[in-house]
Structure prediction request, 132 residues.
Amino acid sequence: MNIRLTLRLRRQLVEALRENARLEGEVHSLDGEIADVRAANTELRAEAQVELEWRLDAATAIEQHGIERARLLGRLKQAVDWAAEVDRVNACIAQQNRHLAADNERLRRELAGLTRPVARVIPLQQRGPEAA
Prediction:
């Protein structure tokens, strides 16, 4: 009975050792897979960091462009306001010029009606000796 028990226990031990070797092989294989996954994870983290920095730079650029756009829109509004003011001033000047032109024409006519012919002036040399 001891021999049978010993043989059976030896068989179980051999089977357990085989199973243990198989499991150690699987563990070793899994360790390799875990190392591969960790390396891929590290690479993905580095890529994600680069992507995050790129997106942060893009967001900063977008924000700066928004600020610049607002500044330029303010300057454009100011320029449009100035142009409108210039148009108003030019319209006033044109109206004043029309009034002044009408006044000038009226004064020219009045002056033409008031003026008498001017006597022709003859130089002394042409008048003769008695004029001297």
The chain is about 90% helix and 0% strand.
